[in-house]
Amino acid sequence: TAGTLFIPILEESLIYTEDKYYSEQIRQQVIDSEQKPSYYHVEGDVTMEVDTAFLPYLLYCSRFNITKTGAGSPWTYKFVPSTAGSATTAASGAVSRTASITMVRNGIGFGYGGCVIGGWEFSIEDGVLRVTMNVFGLSEITPGGLGSPTWAAAKLLGADAHQVFVDAAGATPAFATPATDFNGYTVNINHNPEAQNRIVNTRAASYISYGKTEATLDTELDFVSKTEYDNYKASTKRAYRLRSIGDAVAYASSTDAI
Prior knowledge:
mainly beta
């Protein structure tokens, strides 16, 4: 079917990925004698400005436990890393799932099925929160149509939206006071996805597995004290929160925020 949700992005690199088989039979020649198609999958990165209207759809397609609350739109979503070993194909409810993605390039549609997001990188660039998503898919598909895009007003998170909080690590950090010495903020969450092919009568991947989850934070701090330097040397665990509230207002259930 044609797409029903149209998401504006900045760039993408989704590609069909295959290791073809080349026969090296010994037959009095110095080149490969034959090649056969082999297993394949889809992978690549998609970069976009974080838009609160679209981010929940994408978070559903990753390694998270999901809680959705509220009596109606706007909803409140909570995404917590899960221990799932592979992507699921659930179709409804507050559970993770796969997506079908169509990329339109020069008016030509390229379809990708069984897609999940195996890695996330959130960063603040020129004051605006961006995200780069590492996408893995099972197969390349022919889109049922390109649809008729309708574009809503963007709901971006700009320079006056962000606050960073640092607290002692634990189950319930207070995050009471925002920090004022962060210069830049890039957090990377990598679930180490891998396409898994099994012996079935199709070359497409059978499922996407998840490996060890690795989380890193890259930033610079104004050197006003040795507190965090000493924490680093002592391997002291710390909890970090990036809070971004649309329109720079106080958070409420009706506010666009992450």
